[in-house]
Each structure stands twice: as C-alpha cells, then as structure tokens.
Amino acid sequence: MVELFDLKTILIVAMIFVPIERLLPLHAHQKVLRKHWLNDLIYLLFNGILIKLGFFLLVSLLMIAIRFVVPENLTGIVQGQPIWLQAIEVILVADTGFYLAHRIFHAVPFLWKFHAIHHSIEEMDWLAAHRVHPVDQIVTMTASLLPVYTFGFSGAAVAVYALVYQGQSLLIHSNTRLRFGPLKWVLASPQFHHWHHANERQAYDKNFAGQLPFIDALAGTLYMPERMPKAYGTDDPVPPLYHQQLAYPLKQIAGRVPAGGLSQESGDSRP
Length: 271
Prior knowledge:
Blueprint: H1 7-23, H2 37-66, H3 74-79, H4 83-107, H5 109-119, H6 134-151, H7 155-173, H8 190-196, H9 213-219, H10 242-255
C-alpha cells in the first residue's frame, strides 16, 4: 500500500501506469478519470494509516502467543539461506496465506460484506486496486505475513516480496491488454485477475491467488479463458462513497442479524 500522502510515489506510479493503460488499453473507451476515480484516490490517500495500525496491533498480539511455540533455532536456519531463495519462499508462503484468506472472505457471509467493497469495482484500472475495506486488508495481510514473520525470514526477503506484491497488485487491476504468454500459469496477470472481478456466473469464486495462479490450479479454482470479461462488479448494494463503504459492511451485518443470530446466506451474493 502506498504511504500516506506520499505524493511523489503516487505521481511516479501514475506516470508509469496511465501511459501503459493509454498505449495498451483493454477497454479503449474507458477514461483516465473514469467513474468513481476520486473515491478510489481517497482510498489511496487515507486507507493506509488505518490498515497499518490495525495490522501492527493484530500481528503484534499474535506474535506474542506464537513465539512460545516456535523453536528458537528456526530463525537462524531460515535466515541462513540466500536472500534470493528466501524471497521465493516468502512469496510462496505469503501467497498461500493470501489464497486461503481470500477464499474465506468469499465463503463466509460475515466476511463477504467487507470484501464486497473491492468487488464493487466496475471499471478496472491501477487506481481501483486500492479500493479495499481496511478490515479486509488487515485480515488478509495478517494471513499472508504472519507465517512469514513466524518462520523468521530476513527483512531483505520480506522487502523484495513487498515490492513485487505492490507492483503486481497495480498491474493485475490495470486496464491493459498485456498478456504473459506461458508465464500466465505461473505469475498473476491482468487476464488472471480480471476474471476474478468478472460479474459472470462461470467466473464466480475463481482465481483467489494474488501472485501465483498455479495455487488456484492445484486447488481447482482456476478460470482463465482466452477472452476477457464483459462486465465487472457485484450486485450487492454497495454505496459509492468512501465513508459509506467503510460503514456498509457493519450496516449490512446489523440489518441481517435477527433475534436468533446471524443469517446463513452464501458469501458471494452475486446472482
């Protein structure tokens, strides 16, 4: 996630992705300042601090408990490996955690309300990658990185992962027709992730990995036809503004809790 008010970073990223989306657009009719772009810019500017605080608190509490059951020599063994090997292992471990958390957010009705914010994106581009509810991002980041911290991977390896993850996250949401060729089965591409956002029945609950599509292939959740989706979004009644979207999951949950407890409807309610 881009640093809070790091305008220099934002400008550099925009100067990279806006030209790419103009030169190699997937949807040529889509404008740079497309619908709800300002809302997603607010996510980019303000969401980071909420996510970092929540992530730090949650991981700190969990690490206090974990350190009592993790062997003391584990960190030394892991950090004794070359940085390049650690970086590969971090990506594999973190994306496995990401896959599991992401799939749970689709399957559990309580959690889907938070994840529906991200699926409300109807026009894909690099900026839309930031439209994520803080609760969604905090839980998913924790599932991804808690095992990494537990195993004791070096800071350099984690930094490589963070750089790759952030760049790839922007790319896979971008409005570009870039194809990865045979590498599409190994590295997540716009083709792979656009299908996750597709509002088409056959694509529901597919392509959960963030970086490694072969995880979906192994789990039986891969869907990547040659054509690209015709429509994106969710049929959930997600409001359009940032503050409304932050409150939306809680209002939805509160409105669906009868005297007997939580309702049991399926997570992804797109018809």
